[in-house]
Amino acid sequence: MSPSAPNILISGSGIAGSVFAFWLLRAYPSANITIVERSPSLRLTGASVDIRSSAVDIIQSMNLEAEIRRNCTGEKGLSFVRSDGSPIATLGATGRTDVQTITSEFEIFRGALASIFMNPIKARVKLIFNESVADFHQDEKRDTVDVTFATSQQTKTYDLLVAADGVFSRIRSKILHSSDPREQVRDKGVHVAYFTIHKDLLHGQYAKWHNDTRGRAVFLRPDPHPSGRTRANLMIISSPEDVERKARLDRALSEGNESYMRLMEEYFQDCGWLSQEVLAGMRESEDVYCSPQAAVRSPVLHSGRVVLLGDAGYATPGIGTSLAIIGGYVLAGELLRRPDDFGAALRQYEGLMQPFVGNNDGAGGQAMQYLNPQTAWGIGVRDAVLREMGFIMWSGVAQLVLSVVVWSGWKEKKLAMPAYPWPTVKA
Fold first, then answer.
1. CB neighbours of 216 closer than 8 A, spacing ≥ 6?
2. For the chain, which residues make up each domain, given as ranges?
3. pLDDT score for 427
4. Is 70 exceeded by the pLDDT of residue 361?
5. In this predicted model, what pLDDT tens digit does every residue of 122-131 receive, in sequence order?
6. pLDDT tens, 374-403?
7. SS3 letters for the chain?
């Protein structure tokens, strides 16, 4: 390996992989980077994501903050609403980046953010679609990894294999000697159908959240598209005791979108507010995506010259995008600090990321159970708390308290990163 021109393979063209490639090219302008993507093209769809914690500092360092803000959804806050649509309480955005509520300062659709991160690098990397890693073997004497590809069946040698291949990473399974990628996935008891409705159901820039009994929630978010659209989430939050319903949801997910949509129609047929319009919009939507909210906590983040990045190593509902950005930056920074010792760089990356990830559980199971009670009595208690908070909702104290209680309190949770010696970028 030439320290000035490492030969790197990234499995997955999502946010984690593209942020890592951006910073690696800053560290090593002559780096040879190949990105393989299982899909036939860049995946530019997806629900709203946000940017928090140290990830805000990183997008500022990338000079991408202004572009990201231009592409944000315009969401100003969130209203919890009753069956008739009347508000229980409204939680606005804070206008700050160090303390954020459920509505971030950077609410942006995943596809838009992925494009923003990919655009600066796509002419400088080799991007291969319809391809993935079938197998790999490490050569300890040469400090390299031989990768066999699934489609071409070719085998090529790299200095580093970066697994940015998502929650169900097969590369993670192999380095952990596991036969099933699901073994490292922690179920949060939350199942969601995401889709775009071709109608403006909100008539404004505030998202709305309605709860009904049995852990059912309808969550609508604004879409700035000029034709008038709404981004919808149908959520089922299962209690730990509700094993049978969770099994039905998992089975429907495995069978595909049609089975899952039929189950949503069954579960939400007697739900209040705009549920019937949302169900009708689901049937007319072209981008229905159904998924459990799940976390990944891999016990290790690297093995030899193979390293896990983003969701492959530490998927976290609510803050996964931010962790992917942070992880990409730290991995490239550590490779910059130790150009002649990639092993030490990977150990330091793991040493920084694992404790930080462990202290940031995002919108975890407890928070989702609190926000989405199973019974009418529980919903009433939650609403009473929200109404009381509503009296002081617009004060800075209320915003801070709610961001701590509802969204894990990000203010204290930045990653203490080394000052990486990034080369100066020529104007």
1. 235, 236, 237, 267, 268, 271, 372
2. 7-64+110-176+298-358, 73-106+375-411, 190-293
3. 56
4. no
5. 999 999 999 9
6. 899 999 888 888 777 654 444 444 444 554
7. CCCCCCEEEEECCCHHHHHHHHHHHHHCCCCEEEEEECCCCCCCCCCEECCCCHHHHHHHHCCCHHHHHHCCCCCCEEEEECCCCCEEEEEECCCCCCCCCCCCCCCEEHHHHHHHHHCCCCCCCEEEECCCEEEEEEECCCCEEEEEECCCCCEEEECEEEECCCCCCHHHHHHCCCCCHHHHEEEEEEEEEEEEECCCCCCCCEEEEEEECCCEEEEEEEECCCCCEEEEEEEEECCCCCHHHHHHHHHHHHHCHHHHHHHHHHHCCCCCCCHHHHHHHHHHCCCCEEEEEEEECCCCCEECCEEECCHHHHCCCCCHHHHHHHHHHHHHHHHHHCCCCHHHHHHHHHHHHHHHHHCCCCCCHHHHHHHCCCCHHHHHHHHHHHHHHHCCCCCHHHHHHHHHHHHCCHHHCCCCCCCCCCCCCCC
- Residue 239 pLDDT level (bands cut at 50, 70, 90): confident
Q: What superfamily does domain 7-64+110-176+298-358 belong to in CATH?
A: FAD/NAD(P)-binding domain (3.50.50.60)
Q: What is the pLDDT of residues 284-331, one digit of tens each?
A: 999 999 888 888 999 999 999 999 999 999 998 888 999 999 999 999
CB 278 within 8 A of CB 261: no
What is the reported pLDDT for 387?
Answer: 77
Distance in angstroms (rounded) separating the CA atoms of residues 367 and 389 = 17
pLDDT digits (tens, 9 = 90+) for 32-51: 999 999 999 887 777 889 99
Distances (CA, A) of 354 to 6, 20, 326, 341, 423: 25, 17, 12, 20, 27
Q: How far is residue 233's CA from residue 195's CA, in Å, rounded to a whole number?
A: 7
* CATH class of segment(s) 190-293: alpha beta
pLDDT of 269 > 50? The answer is yes
Residue 90 pLDDT grade (very low, low, confident, very high; cuts 50, 70, 90): confident
Same CATH fold, 190-293 and 7-64+110-176+298-358? no
